[in-house]
Amino acid sequence: MNAERDDVTRVVVTSDGPILVDGPVEVVTAEGTTVHSDRTVVAICTCKRSRIQPFCDTSHRKKVRPERSDDGDTSDDIEPRGEST
């Protein structure tokens, strides 16, 4: 039974990040290009922000400034230093 488990490729889906795949891997992109990685664990981008597609470059970690609500509430906005309302 262990021999069967050694042949299985482990894929981990993370909640706020990439899909992690035990490597080495060959990834076929949407354009049909095959990309190879020899890494032990390969992170596949799911946020589409990575500059090294199809692999993750941790761009998903960058914080996004909250948007203003339709009622004009800016309570989540960041105020410059020394200014207050």
TrEMBL record:
The cellular component terms of Gene Ontology attached to this UniProt record, alphabetical and capped at eight, are: cytoplasm
Q: Does the keyword Transmembrane apply?
A: no
Q: Which residues form the Iron-binding zinc finger CDGSH type domain?
A: 33-66
- Reading the lineage from the top rank, the first entry is Bacteria
Q: Where is this region: Disordered?
A: 58-85
Coiled coil: is it a keyword of this entry? no
Q: Which UniProt keywords apply?
A: 2Fe-2S, Iron, Iron-sulfur, Metal-binding
> Which GO molecular function entries does the Swiss-Prot or TrEMBL record give?
2 iron, 2 sulfur cluster binding; metal ion binding
Output this protein's name. Iron-binding CDGSH zinc finger protein
Q: Organism, per UniProt?
A: Knoellia remsis
The beginning of the lineage is: Bacteria, Bacillati, Actinomycetota, Actinomycetes, Micrococcales
